[in-house]
Structure formats: structure tokens, C-alpha cells
């Protein structure tokens, strides 16, 4: 019997596999889950009921998910004395698609962040964050419904690569000497960080964004960069993006200059517009002209800022879903933390994990289940039946517990 962390793989499920770059999904896929720390347990209990109900309603017993628990974070530490057991990573590799709640970041102990480790070990190079408005969610802008974007943030490079040298150390001094020998003038009391960005890392991210545009019928892919200042990293990201579009998607993409020169500014049927924006201007554009953007592909740091700013714009920071996707595995996850002060109280909003599950069903091609989750979720918010975090911002709302919110979504499917 195959097992991970000493726990047998359920015999009634089958593996999702990848053939010729495409997922092959059985009717009874085994999907590993990490319930998460703190409020993760409350959220997983509620979210998994929503997932099972959506699948049951969509496929009436013809398909079902065989959930398989794997461990990370505090629960893993209590059980196995490790924050992220190798077997949990191996299980995700084996079963290709997984979902997780939030995890505590251990303080000290050598691990920087469990999430970062997972992304690196499994080479989950695209952080995908869809940001859209749900009617009724309290938002700080006048027309939040105009924003509907999917952000593809590069997940492995840039200043997040972890190549840093602390001020005052020998290694920092070596770097400073090296740079000064190359003709730069770096202050002797500097700390140093390195920003690597490669053709490989950039192109695979942008390729995924363009393919997503094709599959989802979206019409614009915007490369967001700070290439006017960082020419050989951010500027190169933009150039490699256009090059990729020319080399691999020539028949279906047009650039902004081609659009104006050849098509009178009107995007022809069946084509996808590839344009680019400088990051600082993009923060203005996404607020003032949100409906001009659809898919955003961007390096790591820009993507980190932009995805939270966009989520805040639609009031959805607490319900924003996310996924980390690579060529051989994908992990869908809550974007908020463990909110430990509310643990085991059945009060927090499970929306982020529920919508991450919706993304997961879309990813494995179970669109009917995904749509049921979206419609149940939207209706429940419109009825103003919400958890405490939304209730305190909405007039005339009914405050529900985590579990009651899940039941309301199920009733509304
Ligand atoms: P946090 O857990 O996100 O909580 C900050 C505040 O956000 C909470 O006090 C609560 O605000 C609100 N909140 C978060 N999740 C919510 C939910 N599901 N429903 C309603 N409100 C929610 O951030 P933190 O306190 O900085 O971090 C706690 C731990 O989580 C740390 O160990 C951190 O490293 C980790 N973390 C993990 C992830 C991840 O696994 N993806 C991400 C971020 C942080 P109110 O108090 O105002 O109600």
C-alpha cells in the first residue's frame, strides 16, 4: 500500500496525471489537502463541505473528490517534529493538484516560510490571483464591478530569490568590493540584494498567462514592469514577453502599436492584445480605468504589491483566492494568514479557501462545480448573510458563523 507520512493513500481514488502537458483527471481524483493552522481547521471544515456539495450537485455521484490529508505547519510539527515533512511535498508531486489553508510561519528554526519552501521545492513558478467584485461586498471605490483581472505573478526570481548579503558581513564586503571594481560606487556600509530575472523564468510565466487568455476567452494580456529604470531585468521581462508573443503566438496576438497602425485601434475578432505598462502608472490605471485590463503578467515584486492593491479595490482582501502553479504541480491556497486569535471559534470568513477551491475545480476542468461555487457564494453575499468581517462593514447584514456561511452557500447553489 502506498503511503505518505505513514498514512495510506485511499484505495477508492485515482491519480491526476499530466500527459503531453495536459492534465488527465479521473472521475475520482485523489486531492491532497493541508487544513492549515490557527483558523485553518474551522475554514477547512466549512470549505470542504462546500466543495463536496458542489461536486455532488454538478455530477450527481458520477464524480467525486477523494480527499487525502497531508501535513505542514503546526500539525506536522506536533505529529512528526518537522514543519514541512518531505513526504508532504512528495504527495503533492505524486497527485499533481493540492489545496491548502494558511500556515504559521515558524519563528527561527531555519525555515524562512513554509509557503516559499513549497513554491521552490515544487517549482510553482506562477502565482495566479483572480480579482473580481462580488455584488454587495463593501469596497472603497465607486465602481468596484469594473475590475475583473487575473494576475500572473512570477514566483521564483527577482528580489525574492533570497540572494541577500547582510550589512557588515564579509560576504557583503566581498560584493561591495566586486561592484566597486566594476566601476560602481557602492557605499561601504550597505547591505546588498540581487535581482536575477531570466529568459526562462519570464517566458514560462508569460506563456502561461497568454495560454490562460486563450482558454478563458480573455482579450488583453498586459506586461507590467519597471523597465524604464531597471532595464536589464524589468525591461528585459517586457522585451522577452513581446518576443514570446511573436515567436509562439504570432497568429493570435497583436501589440498596441499594430492595433493602432493596422486595425484602427479596434481589436479584431479572435485576437489577443499584448501591451505593457510601467508599474507605477499601472497602479493609477487600475484605479482609474480598471475595465481596460484583463490579464496581467508581471515579475515577483510588482505582482506582490499589485495583487493586494487590486484585491483591496474590490473589498476582497479577506476573500481573495490564489494558486501557485508549475508545469508538474499546482497548489491552491488561502491568501490571508492563520488569524490565530480566532482559532476554533467558527467565526472567520472561509471565502478565500472556498474561492481557491473554485479555481482548483476550474483548473482540473470541473467547470460546472466551479460555477456552482461562484453562484452560491455570490447569492449569499447579496443576501447580506456574511461572517463578522463583512458584517461590520455592511448595513443590515446578518452575521453568520463560518459553518453557517458554508451552509448558506450550499443552500444557494
Ligand atoms: P492574518 O492571519 O492574515 O490576520 C490578520 C487579520 O486579518 C486578522 O486579525 C483578521 O482581522 C483578518 N483576517 C485574516 N484572515 C481572516 C479570515 N479568514 N476571516 C476574517 N478575517 C481575517 O495575518 P497575521 O496575523 O499577520 O499572520 C498570522 C500568521 O499567519 C503568521 O504566522 C503569518 O506568518 C501567517 N501567514 C500565512 C499566510 C499563508 O499561509 N498564506 C499568509 C500570511 C500570513 P481582524 O482582527 O480585524 O478581524
Structure described in brief:
An eleven-stranded mixed β-sheet has the order 6-5-7-17-16-8-9-15-12-14-13, with helices on both faces. The protein contains 14 helices and 19 strands. Strand 18, helix 13 (388-391) and strand 19 (398-399) form a beta-alpha-beta unit.
Task: Kindly describe this structure.
With 413 residues, the protein is α/β, with parallel strands linked by helices. It is 41% helix and 18% strand. The chain is built from 14 helices and 19 strands. It has helices at 40-59, 74-80, 86-95, 114-121, 170-181, 199-216, 231-248, 256-263, 279-288, 300-313, 351-363, 367-382, 388-391, 402-411; strands spanning 3-4, 7-8, 17-19, 22-24, 30-34, 66-69, 97-100, 126-132, 148-154, 164-165, 192-193, 220-225, 253-255, 272-278, 295-298, 321-325, 330-334, 385-386, 398-399. The strands form five sheets. It has an eleven-stranded mixed sheet, sandwiched between helices. Strands 1-2 form a two-stranded antiparallel sheet. A two-stranded antiparallel sheet has the order 3-4. It starts with a strand and ends with a helix. 44% of the residues are buried. The model has no long low-confidence stretch (mean pLDDT 95). It binds NADP nicotinamide-adenine-dinucleotide phosphate (NAP). The site of NADP nicotinamide-adenine-dinucleotide phosphate has 17 residues, from strand 17.
Task: Describe how the helices and strands are arranged.
Elements: E1 3-4, E2 7-8, E3 17-19, E4 22-24, E5 30-34, H1 40-59, E6 66-69, H2 74-80, H3 86-95, E7 97-100, H4 114-121, E8 126-132, E9 148-154, E10 164-165, H5 170-181, E11 192-193, H6 199-216, E12 220-225, H7 231-248, E13 253-255, H8 256-263, E14 272-278, H9 279-288, E15 295-298, H10 300-313, E16 321-325, E17 330-334, H11 351-363, H12 367-382, E18 385-386, H13 388-391, E19 398-399, H14 402-411
Helix pairs in contact: 1-11, 1-12, 1-14, 6-7, 9-10, 11-12, 12-14
This protein binds NADP nicotinamide-adenine-dinucleotide phosphate.
Amino acid at each position: 500500500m502506498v503511503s505518505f507520512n505513514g498514512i495510506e493513500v485511499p484505495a477508492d481514488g485515482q491519480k491526476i496525471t499530466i500527459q503531453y502537458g495536459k492534465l488527465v483527471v479521473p472521475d475520482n481524483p485523489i486531492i491532497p489537502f493541508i487544513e492549515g493552522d490557527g483558523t485553518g481547521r474551522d475554514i477547512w471544515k466549512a470549505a470542504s463541505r462546500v466543495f463536496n456539495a458542489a461536486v455532488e450537485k454538478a455530477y450527481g455521484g458520477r464524480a467525486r473528490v477523494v480527499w487525502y490529508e497531508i501535513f505542514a505547519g503546526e500539525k506536522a510539527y506536533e505529529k512528526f517534529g518537522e514543519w514541512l515533512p518531505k513526504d508532504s511535498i512528495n504527495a503533492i508531486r505524486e497527485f499533481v493538484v493540492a489545496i491548502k489553508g494558511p500556515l504559521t510561519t515558524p519563528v527561527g528554526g531555519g525555515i524562512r516560510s513554509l509557503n516559499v519552501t513549497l513554491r521552490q521545492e515544487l517549482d510553482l513558478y506562477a502565482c495566479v490571483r483572480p480579482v473580481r467584485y462580488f455584488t454587495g461586498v463593501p469596497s472603497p471605490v465607486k465602481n468596484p464591478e469594473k475590475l475583473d483581472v487575473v494576475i500572473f505573478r512570477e514566483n521564483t526570481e527577482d528580489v525574492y530569490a533570497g540572494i541577500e548579503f547582510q550589512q557588515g558581513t564579509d560576504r557583503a564586503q566581498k560584493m561591495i568590493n566586486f561592484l566597486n571594481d566594476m566601476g560602481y560606487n557602492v557605499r561601504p556600509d550597505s547591505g546588498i540584494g540581487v535581482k536575477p530575472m531570466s529568459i526562462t523564468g519570464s517566458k514560462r510565466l508569460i506563456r502561461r498567462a497568454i495560454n490562460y487568455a486563450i482558454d478563458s476567452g480573455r482579450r488583453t494580456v498586459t506586461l507590467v514592469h519597471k523597465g524604464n529604470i531597471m532595464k536589464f531585468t524589468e525591461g528585459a521581462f517586457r522585451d522577452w514577453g513581446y518576443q514570446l508573443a511573436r515567436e509562439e503566438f504570432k497568429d493570435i496576438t497583436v501589440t498596441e502599436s499594430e492595433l493602432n497602425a493596422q486595425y484602427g485601434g479596434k481589436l479584431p475578432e479572435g485576437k489577443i492584445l499584448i501591451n505593457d505598462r510601467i508599474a507605477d502608472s499601472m497602479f493609477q490605471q487600475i484605479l482609474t480605468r480598471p475595465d481596460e485590463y484583463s490579464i496581467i503578467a508581471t515579475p515577483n515584486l510588482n505582482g506582490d504589491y499589485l495583487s493586494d492593491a487590486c484585491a483591496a479595490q474590490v473589498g476582497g482582501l479577506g476573500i481573495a483566492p490564489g494558486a501557485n502553479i508549475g508545469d508538474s504541480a499546482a497548489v491552491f491556497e488561502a491568501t490571508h494568514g492563520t488569524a490565530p486569535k480566532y482559532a476554533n471559534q467558527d467565526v472567520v470568513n472561509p471565502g478565500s479557501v472556498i474561492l481557491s477551491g473554485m479555481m482548483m475545480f476550474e483548473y482540473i476542468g470541473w467547470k460546472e462545480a466551479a460555477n456552482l461555487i461562484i453562484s452560491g457564494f455570490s447569492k449569499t453575499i447579496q443576501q447580506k448573510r456574511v461572517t463578522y468581517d463583512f458584517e461590520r462593514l455592511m448595513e443590515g447584514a446578518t452575521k453568520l458563523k463560518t459553518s453557517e456561511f458554508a451552509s448558506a452557500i450550499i443552500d444557494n447553489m
